[in-house]
Amino acid sequence: MRILMLLLVLLTGCATAPVAVQRPPFVDAPFTFNGRIAVKYGMHHDATDIHWQHRGYDEITLLGPLGYTAARIYRDANGATLDDAYGKHYAAPDAESLMEKTLGWSVPLTDLRYWLVATPSPEGEFKIETNANGQLEMLTQQGWEIRYVRYTTTKANALPLELNMSRMGFDVTLKIDGWEAQ
After folding, report:
1. pLDDT tens digits in sequence order for the chain, 182 residues long
2. What is d(CA 18, CA 32) in angstroms, rounded to the nearest whole number?
């Protein structure tokens, strides 16, 4: 009985309060999340788990159905690389052309790193619509329409949990399972 009580005390002591996840305080702040991405274009449909880490560089891991790394994309100021599950290594001056060449589709990673945290990219004009909570509901920029479906909380500075992007018959749904606090 004493062991059970000790175990309960230890487990209770290890419990932590949930971290309030909110939008970073400055543009292009670091972030990390895990989620799922689905891409539809024409008759093609692709879906995969995704882990994205942004820290002045971007490291995006696309995972296969059993959790193996299907592709790892790395992007920084010097260019982009992609390593696939077969050990092939690809390089290009930018991630978008590299993804198109190797995956058959691409998303605008340069802008997407801002859109993910419900902020317009500093490049180019944009149009926004907000909801009653002051959260971004729709963003139009660079020819993309981004709809924010769900957020972590109802606060104005909450991070999105689901967004849908579309442009000329190319649709992307991103569902974020968890943001890591920075």
Report:
1. 333 333 333 333 333 333 445 555 456 678 999 999 999 998 889 899 999 999 989 999 999 888 889 999 999 999 999 999 999 999 999 998 998 888 777 888 889 989 999 999 998 999 999 999 999 999 999 999 999 999 999 999 999 999 999 999 999 999 999 998 65
2. 17
> Can you tell me whether residue 128 is helix, strand or coil?
strand
Q: What phi, psi does 100 have (nearest 5°)?
A: -60, -45
Structural tokens at position 3? 């062991």
CB 29 within 8 A of CB 179: no
Domains of the chain with CATH codes: 32-180 (2.50.20.10)
Sheet of 58-63, strand order:
89-92, 79-84, 69-76, 58-63, 44-54, 31-41, 170-180, 160-167, 144-151, 136-141, 126-130
User: CA angle, 138 as apex, 133 and 143 as ends, to 5°?
Assistant: 160
Q: What number of other Cβ atoms are within 10 A of residue 112's Cβ?
A: 23
Q: pTM surpassing 0.85?
A: no
Q: Which of 152, 161, 138 is nearest to 22 (CA)?
A: 152
Residues whose CB is less than 8 angstroms from the CB of residue 147 and which lie 6 or more positions away in sequence, other chains included:
137, 138, 163, 164, 165
